[in-house]
Amino acid sequence: MSRNADTSTPILPVLAERWSPRSFDTSRSLTMADLTPAFEAARWSPSLSNLQEWRFLVGFRGDATFAAMTEHLSGWNASWAPNAGAIVIGMYEDDPENRGREYAPYDLGQAMAHFSVQAHADGLFVHQAAGFDRDAIAAHFNVPTTWKVFVVAAVGHLGAPELLDETLRARETAPRVRRPLDETVFTHPFPAA
């Protein structure tokens, strides 16, 4: 099943091919060596004043870190994400006393984008999500109070859509769509409301 984006102009294949599945192959595991290139790509992502105000927690299926992370997932994420080979939690420094920290969420987003593109280039799939208990994760892992736990990402090898329940399977196999480019990029003032 091809999940390539139907782009309006050619883009890098790794970007056109990247998508966020919910079905992961539970027969295949991951190690830190598998994710090191993706973390290295995140490390070299753009950073305001080179502050590098992002950090990651990672757990691998079968270890205590992964178990603690997955017990704090919510909604549908709790049904499919535990099948991934790894869970990555992204956080950023949220210290209003330090100059430039208002851009920290943006920089974390760039780091996660670099992570996900590199992982995809390496044959892995990443599904980022917001459905988890940030406070419980922060407390469990003693995250400093100046850091904001922000995003969870399931990482692994692609599984078959048939492994999902009917509702998630429909979402997994639905056509990929995006708003048209001319409704996204403007060269003039926004239209009047």
Features of this protein?
193 residues; alpha+beta; NADH Oxidase; 7 helices; oxidoreductase; oxidoreductase activity
What does this structure look like?
The protein has helices spanning 13-17, 32-43, 64-70, 77-80, 104-121, 134-140, 166-173; strands at 54-60, 86-93, 125-129, 147-156. The chain has a single domain (24-174), classed as NADH Oxidase. It contains seven helices and four strands. Helices cover 32% and strands 16% of the residues. The protein has a four-stranded antiparallel sheet with strand order 1-2-4-3, sandwiched between helices. With 193 residues, the chain is of the alpha+beta class. The radius of gyration is 18 Å and the shape is globular. α2 crosses α5. The model has no long low-confidence stretch (mean pLDDT 93).
How is the secondary structure organized here?
Elements: H1 13-17, H2 32-43, E1 54-60, H3 64-70, H4 77-80, E2 86-93, H5 104-121, E3 125-129, H6 134-140, E4 147-156, H7 166-173
Antiparallel strand pairs: 1-2, 2-4, 3-4
